[in-house]
Amino acid sequence: MDLDFQSFISQLQNSLAAYVEPNFWPQFQAAYREKPLRALRVNMLRAAACTPDKLIGQAADSVEKKDLRKAASDFLNNWPEFQNLKNLWRPVPWAQDGFYVPEEAADFIGKCQAYKLGLFYLQESSAMLPANILSAAANDKVADYCAAPGGKSGKIAADLSGSGCLISNDISLSRAKILLRNLNEAGVWHNSVLNADLEELARLLPDYFDKIILDVPCSGEGMIRKDKKALAARLAKDVNEFSRLQYRLLNLAWSTLKAGGRLVYSTCTFNVQENEAVINEFLEKHREATVLPIKSEISKAAGIRPAFAYTHNSALTAGLRIFPQDGYGEGHFAVLLQKNTGCNLDDSTGSPIGSKPVYAPFVTVVDLNKKNIISAKKRQAAANLKLTRDSGLQLNYQQLTDLLQKFSAAYLSPELAAAYRQLWSRYPYFKLIGDSLEWLIDLPEIQPAGAEKRKDHKSLHVLSEGIWLGQIKAFKNGCKFVPSHNFALLLHSNQTVYEVKTTLADGIYDRILQGQSLTIDMIQPFYSQRNDLELKNSIYALLTVEGYGACWLQIAANTVKSLYPRNWLQ
Ligand SMILES: C[S@@+](CC[C@H](N)C(=O)[O-])C[C@H]1O[C@@H](n2cnc3c(N)ncnc32)[C@H](O)[C@@H]1O
Questions:
Q1: CA of 146 to the centre of ligand 1 (A)
Q2: Which residue has the higher pLDDT, 75 or 477?
Q3: d(CA 114, CA 82)
Q4: Beta-ladder partners of 464
Q5: Nearest CA to ligand 1 atom 2
Q6: 197 belongs to an annotated ligand binding site
Q7: Rounded to an integer, what distance in angstroms lies between the CA atom of residue 418 and that of residue 422?
Q8: What is the tens place of the pLDDT at every residue in 80-108?
Q9: Domains in the chain: ranges and CATH
Q10: ipTM here
Q11: Quick check: 225 and 276 in contact, CB under 8 A?
């Protein structure tokens, strides 16, 4: 046995000695001679059509959610690229939309078109546990504080199904950028992506969220089988330093949870110091916190064990653990906490006690070219909001809605256009950055603006707020709205006026991904029957692949240009 591995095992034996039987260790070590299993989560946010009903929140608890396992496995069994894999998808016991990747698909799964269309997300199966325990429901306000690269946020967004709101944050800018891209690809639209220290968010959003996922940075012992570099990384780290950081993050996250709200704390490491010990200390300081039992379809699933009764605290055994020898996942710890009364932060965290919301609702309008905030208005005054373009051209709120309505009438199906009209008037908050238009849906007001910014608040780095709808381009005879790629990913077949309807076998999407050009002749056979294409004018047609919105095509007299983001090309 390799010396490093031996040293890891003996450190772990010290940590777990009081809690496991002697026969645990031979089985644990034997698991490291086995190959880890890859897994994926079917992304029902994309894989199920976003109907007008769902958009306006009248069907948030969708059929797919009630029979998620069936809907997800039907998707896999029917997808054309997986025809040779029919019925080979073994379900992840604790995740209705999770499946192990069959050996036959191991090399191809990360390269297939379904992956590039955001129809599934590759995720280690034990990492699916926390978001399934959290079980976000329609209209929940949810935070995922240590969110990059975004596996758990993607699942939460699918569970919210376009309702409520989701804040996904990561302290690392490079990782937050990956998080943003992953969420964009997954067609997530009801969320904000932030790059902030949790300390700052705790000041701004006290007692705000219904549900929180806190998947803390940890020593990563559960990653060692999958990733050999994780062993050296683990040995270079001091688990006690991690447990201090985790305790601090838990206190901060807790202060942003509403009374009655629920928080899942999770790690992908085995030692008790970063798991039960952190929760035990937290429970001692927070009488308003209780450990909740986890629903039996998860806690009794194959491969799941109860957490350990650290220092004889049996409440902790309602938490869950996954070990690699149980055959189903690499390693995870998760516990579900409920906040029973108002927040009472521990002094020693140095965090504010009883801090209050500081900011009234507002909308910011930022001109990145001028590199400063040029206007900030209260949300209540949104109707008077002026959107200023760097060209000097001014759009008032009415002009902006006119542009969007003109676009939706010209390009979206009548049912979908009506749903968007309803939503735009329900959430009439927009932000213009340069010429890019973001639509702020039902999101908390998190960005301190101009004069309202208090001296003791650093400014937050917001990577995205709501959905990037598109760009507003100025022409001699007025402005035009150019839809974004994110917008294309919200759409499905038969939801637009102009559609280039393809199958995988047609190869059009493949050409786009490879950066190759298209001609009118190539796409001509795939025009939808919904409307004849008017080739004289420039129009936007949605390219669909097997019914899923893949990207916009700008079609003018004799040219076709794909609006697929250049920086996403392979
Ligand atoms: C275990 S990873 C999260 C994995 C993620 N939940 C997922 O499922 O894709 C922990 C993350 O916490 C972030 N992090 C570390 N310290 C943080 C802090 N003070 N505030 C916010 N995020 C932090 C790290 O950058 C890292 O991306």
A1: 3
A2: 75
A3: 10
A4: 193
A5: 217
A6: yes
A7: 6
A8: 999 999 989 999 999 999 999 999 999 99
A9: 3-33+197-349 (3.40.50.150), 362-485 (no CATH), 491-568 (2.30.130)
A10: 0.98
A11: no
Q: C-alpha angle with apex 119: 113 to 124, nearest 5 degrees?
A: 100
Q: Mutate which of 153, 167, 171, 227 to test ligand 1's pocket (most atoms within 8 Å of Cβ)?
A: 171
What is the average pLDDT value for the chain, to the nearest integer?
83
* Predicted pLDDT of residue 374: 31
Q: What are phi and psi of 208, to 5 degrees?
A: -105, -45
218 catalytic? Reply is no
Token digits of residue 98: 């999770």
* Marked catalytic residue, from 50, 268, 479, 551: 268
Q: Rounded CA gap, 275 and 305, in Å?
A: 14
**Going by CA atoms, what residue is nearest to atom 27 of ligand 1?**
148
What are the angstrom distances between the C-alpha of 200 and each of 71, 352, 456? 40, 11, 10
CB atoms near residue 173 (< 10 Å): 11
- Asked whether residue 146 is marked as a ligand-binding residue, the answer is yes
Q: How many CB atoms lie within 10 A of CB 135?
A: 17
Residue 375 has pLDDT above 60, yes or no: no
Residue 474 clears pLDDT 90, i.e. is over it:
no
Least confident span in 38-47, 373-382, 438-447, 451-460: 373-382
Residue in the block written with tokens 């108002």:
342
The residues lining ligand 1, judged by C-beta closer than 6 Å to any ligand atom, are 127, 145-152, 169-172, 175, 197-198, 215, 217, 249
Q: Exposure pattern of 233-263 as b/e (b: 16+ CB <10 Å)? A: ebeeeebeebbeebbbbbbbbbbbbbeebbb
Burial of 300: CB neighbours in 10 Å, binned 0-12, 13-18, 19+: exposed
Residues with Cβ within 8 Å of 472's Cβ and at least 6 positions away in sequence, in order, are: 387, 389, 395, 400, 403, 432, 435, 437, 479, 480, 481, 482
Q: Is 100 helix (H, G, I), strand (E, B) or coil?
A: strand
Three-state DSSP at 89 gives coil
Q: What is the mean pLDDT of residues 289-303?
A: 97
Q: What DSSP element (H or E) covers 398? A: helix 397-411
> Cα–chain-centroid distance for residue 203?
23
- Residue for token digits 């490879």? 514
Does pLDDT of 329 surpass 90? no
Ligand 1 center–CA 169 separation, angstroms: 8
Ligand 1 atom with least separation from CA of 249: 19
Q: Is the dihedral of CA 249, 250, 255, 261 positive or negative?
A: positive
Res 352 pLDDT > 60:
no
Which residue has a Cα nearest atom 19 of ligand 1?
197
Give residue for tokens 């935070």.
Answer: 143
